[in-house]
Design a protein that fits this description.
By secondary structure, the chain is α/β, with parallel strands linked by helices. It is built from 17 helices and nine strands. Strand 4, helix 16 and strand 5 form a beta-alpha-beta unit.
């Protein structure tokens, strides 16, 4: 009697079903990263997996209809639209797609180990032994918890790397006072920039992205209020120095056109991607992150994103913040998030905002590694333009209570640093 090789049909169905539940972009990205078609034991599910990826690669929404059409177009056999609907019925959400994918991958590795062991029993050459050892290592790593064990993992190499010619990778914002206070930002960290409506949060994020991308760091901008084209045109104004209103209205002379052409050439070399969705979900953001291979993600702004379904706005924001911070850690990216201050700060022209003014402050404050509060003190406003004060209200890795003055040019949309002063304790 022939023994059936290791496999889990239900887990394979659950992976495919998760990839077919809208919005499926995040589930597709997770499954693509962990699995290949050959990891599926059922040949029909291999075919379905390839079809789902093909649909997603065309930026279409993978569901029973679009994937069924892809299967018909490619002439694939062995799986029907009814089979796809059956896979979708196995799961109610895509939240656990990573768990299902790991189950499928583990069974695939077990099958490969059995096959490699059979080859080794016939021919004990070094290549077969190396292949078997690698498969066993992959299986062990797949199920092992991510532990840092001092006795195993700590060595003088760590100190050598810290003191070596290449320092640890830290991201900068380009605002010297902020970078000095926060000691730079490591992959996996979350910076929240909060302010009232129209204070300049979006331009702050755009300015930091401009600085970051100019250094060659891959950036993803998630802008929900404006289209990708509108965000690009704003960035074009920042880069060129040509007034944003001229670009928007097309009031350009030869000198403006020449400046824009030069800027376009420089921007063409910047590794920037812009997600063009009005209400992006966390799954959308993660899928765009994977596609763009971004190292820094700018999310503008919190309450314009599609929040998880919870009983209240407070719980929805809490769930989003926890998941966003987890995404930053899991993917090893630095996230800059724009958030609103509560309406209580409106009209308080001479009192700096505090962490208590954050809408749903407990969750936003807790999950952020640093929080910068933007406001425009009336006493500091010049005759033209605006002066913003950026207060470092929370900082896990450096000093708090720093106030950085920024000049905002409302025409070119450029933000430049003026000075940095340490606030008195009672103001911090």
């Amino acid at each position: 009697m022939t023994k059936t090789p290791p496999n889990d049909k239900t887990a394979e169905q659950a992976v495919l079903g998760s990839m077919l539940i809208p919005p499926a972009s995040g589930a597709v990205a997770v499954a693509r990263e962990l699995l290949t078609p050959e990891d599926f034991y059922q040949e029909a599910y291999r075919v379905a997996f390839r079809a789902i990826l093909a649909v997603a690669d065309r930026r279409e929404v993978p569901d029973a209809v679009t994937v069924g059409a892809e299967l018909a177009r490619s002439g694939a056999e062995g799986i029907s639209r009814a089979d796809l609907v059956e896979c979708s019925s196995v799961v109610v959400s895509a939240a656990h797609v990573e768990h299902y994918a790991r189950v499928v991958r583990r069974a695939s590795l077990e099958r490969q180990i059995i096959s490699a062991s059979s080859r080794l029993s016939v021919d004990q050459c070094p290549e077969n032994l190396t292949a078997l050892s690698e498969l066993v290592r992959q299986k062990e790593m797949l199920g092992a918890p991510p532990l840092l064990v001092y006795s195993r993992d700590i060595s003088s190499d760590i100190v050598d790397s810290l003191a070596g010619p290449t320092p640890p990778r830290l991201h900068q914002t380009g605002i010297h006072g902020l970078d000095t206070a926060c000691l730079g930002f490591a992959p996996g960290e979350l910076l929240t920039v909060a302010g009232s409506t129209n204070i300049g949060k979006s331009l702050f994020l755009l300015g930091v992205m401009h600085f970051t991308a100019a250094k060659g760091t891959r950036c993803l901008f998630v802008g929900s209020e404006m289209t990708a084209r509108e965000t690009f045109l704003r960035h074009l104004s920042v880069e060129s120095g040509v007034e944003a209103w001229r670009i928007r209205k097309g009031r350009l002379d030869a000198s403006h056109t020449a400046a824009l052409a030069g800027s376009m050439g420089r921007m063409h070399e910047m590794p920037v991607s812009i997600l063009d969705l009005p209400e992006p979900s966390l799954q959308d953001i993660e899928a765009a992150l994977v596609a763009s291979r971004a190292e820094v993600v700018f999310v503008d702004y919190l309450t314009r994103c599609r929040l998880p379904r919870e009983e209240s706005l407070r719980l929805r924001i809490k769930a989003f913040m926890v998941s966003l911070k987890s995404l930053a850690r899991r993917r090893g990216v630095f996230v800059v998030l724009a958030a609103q201050l509560s309406r209580a700060v409106y009209g308080r022209e001479e009192n700096a905002p505090t962490l208590a003014d954050l809408s749903e402050s407990s969750s936003i404050e807790q999950e952020s590694d640093a929080v910068v509060l933007l406001w425009a003190p009336k006493a500091k406003q010049p005759g033209t333009g605006r002066v913003l004060e950026a207060n470092v209200a929370k900082n896990r890795h450096g000093e708090r209570g720093l106030a950085v003055d920024l000049s905002l040019d409302d025409e070119t949309l450029r933000i430049t640093e003026l000075q940095a002063n340490v606030l008195e304790p009672e103001e911090a």
